[in-house]
Amino acid sequence: MLAVIDDYLFFEDLAPLVDFSKMKKAEIFDKYFEWKSWHHTSSQFNVTHFYGLNEGALEEDTRALTAEELEAQAEASRIEAEKKKKEEEDYKKLVEERERKEKEFEEKYGFKHDTFAALKLVHPELFENVRIAKKSGKPVYTFVYRGTEFNLREERLEDSTAYGFDAIKELGL
Q1: pLDDT tens string 109-162
Q2: What is the rounded CA–CA span in Å between residue 58 and residue 55?
Q3: Which residues pair with 152 in a beta bridge?
Q4: pTM of the entire predicted model
Q5: What is the pLDDT of residue 99?
Q6: How far apart, in Å, do the first and last CA atoms of the chain sit?
Q7: CA-CA distances (angstroms) from residue 13 to 34, 39, 58, 62?
Q8: Are the CB atoms for 32 and 54 separated by under 8 Å?
């Protein structure tokens, strides 16, 4: 309810004359909200009531912002927008750096950073249990990762994702 009131005050350029945050919820509802309409909301023809701001009651406990207050509000909005823009730019740089590291890793090792091949590179001790498949004669690794036992052929290590594993982070690249 307070968010609705705050939004209304902001968009109408009003300042409160009372501290809404110190009022009880029922008091705010009774004084500043009113029944607007109802609708049937199920196949049982239940009735749902809709409430909205009682703008007349709200305007009794508010005043228009002064020119200085409007200017300060605009400045605060500008500062917030600049902050958000900088955060977005910083995030974009982080994403670009991460993508660059992933590409470098893949070019250097020939497989992605989050595959079982990368896990084998960083933790070869997990891949010591190997057997030869009867039909293909190829090696099959049996290991436990994050509580799950895996049986993977050598050629599947490069294209199987080891969820939760990041060789770039583990190697400190």
Answers
A1: 999 999 999 999 999 998 888 888 888 888 899 888 888 888 888 888 898 999
A2: 5
A3: 141
A4: 0.58
A5: 96
A6: 48
A7: 22, 32, 13, 10
A8: yes
